[in-house]
């Protein structure tokens, strides 16, 4: 029993170290030696649990998938979607498994089928939430929920990339919130987004009026009527 518990702890340590290695270095630059060093184990111990670097990467991706929802459930499914998205955005900055998962999906080192599994899992979850929100009357009947779900997942990758390129700018959560604020009004029923925490701060830059807020911030959301 003690030996079994030690083996479980060792595997978890290797998995955590692998996530850090892939998040920081990417798949191609990551090495089994680097993972073993981070985990504080021998390479023999690593190979006992994971025969190759690819197996470590696959396990990190599976760990990401198996974590399931990061927020919820909530009675209002549009609120649950928003909270999940913003919680995931925060994890993209703070959680090695999530950062590694996104990076492994975007890079070319793994087989396409392996990289595609987390993407399908995440888009499927958001599509399910959008369908549930439609059943509650909060999403327009004509909305293509699968397409909106794909756009939401794409927001994470884009926000993470921009935050790396412009580190002195806004964080990932702010950028994802901004993307949702512009995207969801094209899918949501009138009034459905009120109170969901997507409001921006006061406008800044040339021509901004001190103390003024945008229509979204004041709760006066204007929804298009052409199904866009």
Automatic annotation (TrEMBL):
Single Gene Ontology MF annotation: transcription cis-regulatory region binding
Record lineage: Bacteria, Bacillati, Actinomycetota, Actinomycetes, Kitasatosporales
NCBIfam families in the record: ScbR_bind_reg
Pfam families: TetR_C_45, TetR_N
Biased composition annotated in UniProt, kind: Low complexity: 206-218
Protein name per its UniProtKB record: TetR/AcrR family transcriptional regulator
DNA-binding residues (ranges): 31-50
Segments forming domain HTH tetR-type: 8-68
Entry keyword set: DNA-binding, Transcription, Transcription regulation
InterPro entries according to UniProt: ArpA-like, CprB_TetR_C, Homeodomain-like_sf, HTH-type_TetR-like_transc_reg, HTH_TetR, Tet_transcr_reg_TetR-rel_C_sf
């Amino acid at each position: 029993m003690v030996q079994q518990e030690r083996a479980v702890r060792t595997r978890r340590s290797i998995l955590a170290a692998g996530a850090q290695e892939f998040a920081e270095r990417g798949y191609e630059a990551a090495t089994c030696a680097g993972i073993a060093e981070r985990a504080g184990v021998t390479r023999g111990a690593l190979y006992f649990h994971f025969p190759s670097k690819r197996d470590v990467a696959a396990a990190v991706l599976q760990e990401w998938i198996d974590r399931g929802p990061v927020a919820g459930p909530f009675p209002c499914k549009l609120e649950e979607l928003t909270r999940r998205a913003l919680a995931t955005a925060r994890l993209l900055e703070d959680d090695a498994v999530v950062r590694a998962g996104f990076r492994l999906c975007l890079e070319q080192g793994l087989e396409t089928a392996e990289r595609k599994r987390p993407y399908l899992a995440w888009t499927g979850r958001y599509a399910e939430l959008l369908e549930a929100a439609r059943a509650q009357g909060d999403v327009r009947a004509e909305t293509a929920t699968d397409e909106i779900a794909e756009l939401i997942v794409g927001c994470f990758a884009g926000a993470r990339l921009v935050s790396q390129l412009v580190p002195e700018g806004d964080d990932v959560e702010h950028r994802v919130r901004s993307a949702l604020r512009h995207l969801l009004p094209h899918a949501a029923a009138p009034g459905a987004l009120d109170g969901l925490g997507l409001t921006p701060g006061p406008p800044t830059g040339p021509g901004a009026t001190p103390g003024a807020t945008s229509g979204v911030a004041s709760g006066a959301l204007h929804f298009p009527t052409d199904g866009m």
